[in-house]
Amino acid sequence: GAASKGDYRHFMLKEIHEQPAVIAATLEGRLGAEGVLVNGFGSEAQALFPQVRQVHIVACGTSYHAGLVARYWLERYAGLPTQVEVASEYRYRRVVVPENTLFVTLSQSGETADTLAALRFAKDNGYLASLAICNVPGSSLVRESDLTLLTQAGPEIGVASTKAFTTQLTALLLLTLALQRVQGGEAPAGLIEALRGLPEAVTRVLALDDEIESFAEAFAEKHHALFLGRGAHYPIALEGALKLKEISYIHAEAYPAGELKHGPLALVDSEMPVISVAPNDELLDKLKSNLQEVRARGGELFVFADESVALEAGEGVRVLRLPAVHEALAPILYTLPLQLLSYHVAVLKGTDVDQPRNLAKSVTVE
Ligand code: G6P
Where, subcellularly, is it found (predicted)? Predict the structure, then answer.
C-alpha cells in the first residue's frame, strides 16, 4: 500500500524511484496532439489564461525552489514577467500587483500556514485569479483557489520532498506551455515530444545510482558543501543544498556560479566539496571557468554534466554523465542525482532519513 516502504530501506528512496511513474501520471491526459490542454487547469482557465500578463508565485521550502525554476520557463517560453517569493515574506509586505497578474501557489500538502495566509492576503489584492499547484486534492489551498492543477505524486512520507518537487516542475512546465499557447505562441521545437519521453529519461538517470552512491563517501566526513548552478539550474543547486542540509545535517550553500568570486570562493579549500550542475546549455563555458577557479584552490569537484560536454574527470574532478535532454527538461533531470547523493550521504552518516531532526512534513502553524 501507499504507506509501506516495500523493498526500500527508506520512504525517501522509494519516493525517489517512484518519480518516473508519478511524472507520467502528472502528464497523463494533459497533452493533446497540438500541445498542452488548457482545460486541465479548470473550466475557467480557457477564459482567464489569455488575459494573464504577469505571474506571481508564492511557496515555501522545496516548493519555493520549484517556483524559482518556473520563473526561467515563464519568462523564456511564455514571455511573462514572473516574480517568485517565499510565502512568509510575501504575506508581510506591501505587494504591488499589476493588472492581469495570475497568483500561483505551490504546495505539496496544501496546508502550509504561510502559503495559505499568502493566498488569503492575495484575495484582496486585485489579482486576476489564483491557481494552486498542489499534491493533495481537497486541501485548504485547493479549496480556496480559483484554479487547480493537481500534481499526481501520491502520498509523500519522507519529510525531505522529492517526487512532489519533480511533479511540481512538470506541472509548472505544463502551465508555461498552456499560457504560451493561449497567448498565440508555439511550444519550443521538440519539447512536447521530449515531455512525453520524460518518465523514460528519468528512469535512465535513476539507473546511475551506483555511480552517484560512490560519490557519497567524499561527503560523509565533511562539514560543508557548496552547490553551483547557473540559469534555471541555480534553483536546482538550491534544492540540492537543501536536501543535503535536511537529511545529512551537513551545512550546504548554493550559489549561482557567477557569484562565486563575490564571496564563497574565500571558503573553498580541500575541505569544501563543490557540486556543480552543468548541463550543456549556453552558460556552460562560463560555468567551466568557475570550476577552474574552484580547482585552483584545491576544492574537490563533483560535476553532473550532459554526456556531450567536453569536461574531463581527473585529479580532484569527478564527472557524472547524464543523458542529453531537451534544455527545458534539464532542471527536472538534474534534480535526481542531487536527491540520490543526499540520500546516500545521510545513510552513511546514519541519520533518520525519513524523519530528520527538528523538521516537519507539513508546517501548519506559523
Ligand atoms: C516543510 C517540508 C518541506 C516542504 C515545505 C513546504 O518545510 O519539510 O519539505 O517543502 O514544508 O511544504 P508544502 O507542503 O507547502 O509544499
Answer: Cytoplasm
CA of 332 to the centre of ligand 1 (A): 18
Question: Per residue in 291-305, pLDDT tens?
Answer: 888 888 888 999 999
Q: Is the pLDDT of residue 344 over 90?
A: yes
CA of 139 to the centre of ligand 1 (A): 14
pLDDT value, residue 299: 87
- For the purposes of burial, counting CB atoms within 10 Å of the CB of 96, is it exposed (0-12), middle (13-18) or buried (19 or more)? exposed
SS3 of residue 125 by DSSP: coil
Q: Which pLDDT band holds residue 285 (cuts at 50, 70, 90)?
A: confident
How confident is the model at residue 2, as a pLDDT? 56
Q: How would you write 242-290 as a 3-class SS string?
A: HHHHHHHCCEEEEEEHHHHHHCHHHHCCCCCCEEEEECCCCCHHHHHHH
Q: Is residue 356 lining ligand 1, measured as CB closer than 6 Å?
A: no
Q: What is the DSSP string of 176-241?
A: HHHHHHHTT--PPTTHHHHHHTHHHHHHHHHTTHHHHHHHHHHHHT-SEEEEEE-TTHHHHHHHHH
Contact yes or no for 39/45 (Cβ under 8 A)? yes
Q: Considering only CA atoms, which of 163, 165, 168, 128 is closest in space to residue 150?
A: 168
Asked whether 139 lines ligand 1 (CB < 6 A), one says: no
For the question of whether the overall pTM of this predicted structure is more than 0.95, the answer is yes
From first CA to last CA, the distance across the chain in angstroms is 32
Give the residue whose CA is nearest to atom 5 of ligand 1: 61
**160 CA: nearest ligand 1 atom:** 9
Give the closest residue to 112 by CA, choosing from 49, 171, 62. Answer: 62
